[in-house]
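User: C-alpha cells for this one?
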Amino acid sequence: MTIVCLDMEGVLMPEFWPAFGKVTGIKEFDLTTSDEPDYDKLMKMRIEAMRRNNLGLKEVQETLKKIEPVEGAREFLDKLRKITQVIILSDTFEQFGMVIMEKLNWPTLICNTLEISEDGFITDYKMRSDNTKYDTVRALQSIGYNTVVSGDSYNDIGMIKASKAGFLFRSTDKIKAEYPEIPTCETFDELFEAIVKELD
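Assistant:
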C-alpha cells in the first residue's frame, strides 16, 4: 500500500511568511526554508520580529485568509485524492493551516502548533518531533505503507530520501544543484504522472 505525502507551502500554497512580509513590509518574513535550513533559527527570528512590531496571531490569520492556492493545486490534489490517499505534511502550524484547508477541499493536514499568549501574541512553537516530516514518513512506513513524497525545500529532503520515491517540485536552483539525484518536476501534470508511476 502506498500513501502520498505532499509539502504544502511552495507546492500547494504560496509561502505564507513572504506574503505576510509583503503586507507588513518587514523583510525578516521574506526568508523561508529554501533560504535558511535551520528552522529553529528561522522561527525564532520570525517570532521576535512579530513581537517587535506588535503583530500577533490575528494579523497572520487575516493575511492567510487572502492567500489562494497555487494555480492548479486544488485540481491536482482533487485528481490525486481520487486514486490514492494523500496527507499534507507541513512544518506550518495548526493555527495557520486550518485557516486555509478549506481552499484545498479539506485534505488531511499533519503539522505543528504555536504557543499563544492571552493577548494574542505568538510566544513559541512546538514541533511534533525534531524532524517532523521525516519522522512522519518513517512512522507511516512502520505500519506498512510505502511513501511517495514531494516538496520544494531543505526541510523536505529527509522525507524524500527516506521514501520509496520522492520529487522536488519547483525547487530553487541551489537545492536542485545540491541534490541532483532527486528527480524534479515543474508542473502539476509532471508531478501527477511521476506519482502515479510509483503507486502500488
